[in-house]
Amino acid sequence: MAAVTTAATRVRQKKRKGTRSREARAAYGFIGIWIVGFLVFTLGPMIASLVLSFTDYNAISSPHNVGWANYRQMFSDPKVGKALANTLVYAVIYVPAAMVVALALAMVLNRVGRASGFFRTVFYLPVMTPPVAAGALFLLLLNGNQGLLNRTLHLVGINGPNWTTDTAWVKPGLALTMLWGVGGMVVIYLAALRQVPKDLYEAASLDGAGAWMRFRKITLPMISGALFFTLIVQTISALQMFDQAYTMFFGGQQNSTYSNDAALFYVIYLFQQGFGFLHMGYASALAWLLFIVIMIITAIQVRVSRRFVYYEGERD
Amino acid sequence: MAASPAGLTATPAAEGPATRKARTAPPGAGRRDRPPVWKRAPYLVVLGLASVLFTYPFLWLISASFKPRTDVFDNALIPHHWRFANFADVWHYGNMVNWLINSAVVGVAAATTVTISSAVVAFGFAYFRFPGRNILFGLVLATMMLPQAVTMIPVYLIWNKVGLTGTQVPLWAQNIFGSAFYIFLLRQFFLSLPRELFEAARVDGCSFFGLFWRIALPLARPALAIVFIFEIQASWNDLLKPLIYLQNTSLFTMPRGLKSIIDTFGNGGEHHWEIISAASLIATIPMIVIFAFAQRHIIEGIATTGRKG
């Protein structure tokens, strides 16, 4: 009897093993295309970029080794510190503001039933505006003297700052510009909120949980996946701010306006170095510093978030 | 973990094969039980006010693009003097038609390729258990963290080597290999699908590709639509790549062309903000048109998630 059982188990195990290797082959069939792209357009270029960061290269004559010179130059280049500080300040203003605003809007949307479709459209419309167009538009709206924002603030007795020229206000101004496009996050949060089973709230209400308690104990955990996703993505993209800032303050004939340095974001400086001055070695070194900064910040976020994120149906 | 397929039964359904399977759904749940109007009124007021904030800049832009130069900053919503010639000026200055076509072609190429490839890869990561999965998916996440700046220069050198700088190919061709953001997003979606669905199909003899093609993809339609739209938009919006790769103005995409208009007529130039407004409006309208169609698709898609197909 016992022998029969073990034999049967062995057969079952063998079968499972066969299934598994077949599954593995199929899996690699699905993800293979990504692996190719990763090698050609990510890993290869990363190595090349690392190598280039130790060279002096202008894309015309062949690169020659300069050792750590680029990295040393980076730490004595005041513009690097300035660009890094600008970028971090902006991210710290924008990301939390965007998450709070988007979640608030999504939660209100989730309360109005069918009308939410209309409002969601309205909130999403600005997201459809190309950053270059939005940059141009907000350059006008935020104009210190004549812009709509300051004119409106004036009506309620507030003297608005020079959003586009006052170095202290350029980054909040840019954050406002970007907040106009918060509708994308609203859509993501609203979709997540709708996935939350209603009976959870009903059960919690029966147990006497108040609105705040339901928000803390049901809503937040149930949409934590979406919150986590947006936090990571928004932070990474904020640290790479380029389009709007470049549109508003750089390029063309306005080679150096007064507020330039306040809007000198890291990727803008990198772009200037790499493709403006063709300092491709130095730009590569700059890129690696940015990478390290982003990795550290993301690692902290992942570590902190891990305890709060909850997925339905994950198998591991 | 709760065994019930919450993603499917949570949203009340009217009809559809998946629902018929989900017998836990209460009968007659077709109509959402909504709170009365007076309870929703405060929320509607909040949303109304927020809508004004979100819409006004856009209305301002439309208005400004019909104003003469001196009136741009008068902040009147209806122009005192209409100047339709702004659009003629824009048309005259820029290669607008060219730029619109270029952006459309690049956008469709970019979005189609990235949606298909990312869905395939995402399903591979979501469904299968295989050696190296966690490491490889870790790599996907890692590339998401990887700033474009790191690979920007060597990738430029690759395209330079094969003689494609100065063409539009580098603006979309990388999408053939999927994009980490979308792989992550779609994998999240696939993971939220109840596993029982796939196991039942396997028992019925469905192939792995069939699981993807017949079950996962139809259910993922709203997510795929979102990816497609996101990428159309990302492509339409992209300024950095056209700045790097395109010199010939006739090849410019819309944002690159618009930037050249801003540079010519803006701060450094002649302060023709009405022309810049008109050009910005032209650059935006195609996105609004696409959105008008796609929005309906998204609403339908999300409202019927897990119930169609």
TrEMBL record, chain A:
Q: Where in the cell is it found?
A: Cell membrane
Residue ranges constituting the ABC transmembrane type-1 domain according to the UniProt record: 84-301
What topology in the membrane does the UniProt record assign?
Answer: Multi-pass membrane protein
Q: Which InterPro entries match?
A: ABC_transporter_permease, MetI-like, MetI-like_sf
Q: Which residues form the signal peptide?
A: none
Name assigned to this protein: Sugar ABC transporter permease
Q: Which UniProt keywords apply?
A: Cell membrane, Membrane, Transmembrane, Transmembrane helix, Transport
Task: Check the record and name the SUPFAM superfamilies matching this protein.
Answer: MetI-like
- Which residues span the membrane? 26-48, 88-109, 121-142, 173-192, 222-242, 285-304
* A single GO cellular-component term on record: plasma membrane
Please report a single Pfam family linked to this protein. Answer: BPD_transp_1
Q: Where is it chiefly localized?
A: membrane
Query: Cross-referenced CDD domains, in alphabetical order?
Result: TM_PBP2
Q: Which GO terms describe its biological process?
A: transmembrane transport
The family this protein is said to belong to: Belongs to the binding-protein-dependent transport system permease family.
Automatic annotation (TrEMBL), chain B:
Where's the ABC transmembrane type-1 domain? 100-294
Please name the Gene3D superfamilies in this protein's record.
MetI-like (1.10.3720.10)
In the UniProt record, does the keyword Membrane occur? yes
Per its UniProt record, what PROSITE patterns does this chain match? Answer: ABC_TM1
Tell me what organism the protein belongs to: Actinoallomurus iriomotensis
Could you name the domain of life of the organism this protein comes from?
A: Bacteria
Where is the segment annotated Disordered?
1-34
GO BP, sorted A to Z: transmembrane transport
What compartments host this protein?
Cell membrane
Record protein name field: Sugar ABC transporter permease
- In which family does this protein belong, per the annotation? Belongs to the binding-protein-dependent transport system permease family.
This entry carries the following GO cellular component terms, namely: plasma membrane
> So where does this one cross the membrane?
41-62, 99-128, 135-159, 171-190, 211-230, 275-294
- Name the Pfam families on file: BPD_transp_1
Q: How does this protein lie in the membrane?
A: Multi-pass membrane protein
* Membrane is among the record's keywords: yes
List the keywords (alphabetical).
Cell membrane, Membrane, Transmembrane, Transmembrane helix, Transport
